[in-house]
Specification:
- Helices cover 72% and strands 6% of the residues.
- With 143 residues, the chain is mostly helical.
- The chain has a single domain, classed as Serine Threonine Protein Phosphatase 5, Tetratricopeptide repeat (Alpha Horseshoe), CATH 1.25.40.
- The protein has a two-stranded antiparallel sheet with strand order 1-2.
- A hairpin with a 4-residue loop joins strand 1 and strand 2.
- Helix 4 runs antiparallel to helix 5.
């Protein structure tokens, strides 16, 4: 928004941008075949949305959650949605550590969500399989 914009226009822009970023991430993840380019769009969109949701409070020097969406029912649900979608994008990019980190954070915010729990279990399984595969390769090299 340009400097000097009316506060009402700025608030309207802010309340629309976060859901639009999350929806663009979802669209990028739904495109088949899934490519690293689309997954990067998903990561960038969700990161941008997360950056807009978590703003620093300059007066107190502490970080707090500030949702810029007037229609959002619950701040933790929206934050979990953003983390879940970024975790899915990291899975496509085969970045298991980042995916697991985002999915853990999302599951802590909304522990009863089955989709997050299932995807976290899959990410941990892929991470374990990758580690086992690396062990097996190194074992052959030094045997």
């Amino acid at each position: 928004m340009p400097e000097g914009s009316p506060a009402e226009l700025k608030n309207s822009f802010d309340s629309l941008l976060t859901p639009l970023l999350l929806n663009s991430a979802l669209a990028a993840l739904k495109i088949h075949p899934q490519t690293s380019f689309n997954a990067r769009i998903g990561v960038e969109s969700t990161t941008r949305a997360l950056d807009r949701m978590t703003l620093s409070n300059a007066d107190k020097g502490e970080r707090h959650l500030h949702i810029l969406c007037g229609t959002c029912p619950d701040a933790s649900t929206v934050l979990a949605k953003a983390l879940y979608r970024r975790g899915l994008a990291h899975v496509v990019l085969k970045e298991e550590d980042a995916a697991e980190s985002d999915l853990i954070a999302a599951s802590q915010l909304v522990p009863e969500d089955q989709a997050i729990t299932n995807e976290l279990a899959k990410a941990r399984q892929r991470k374990k399989e990758k580690k086992d595969k690396e062990k097996k390769a190194f074992k052959k090299m030094f045997a």
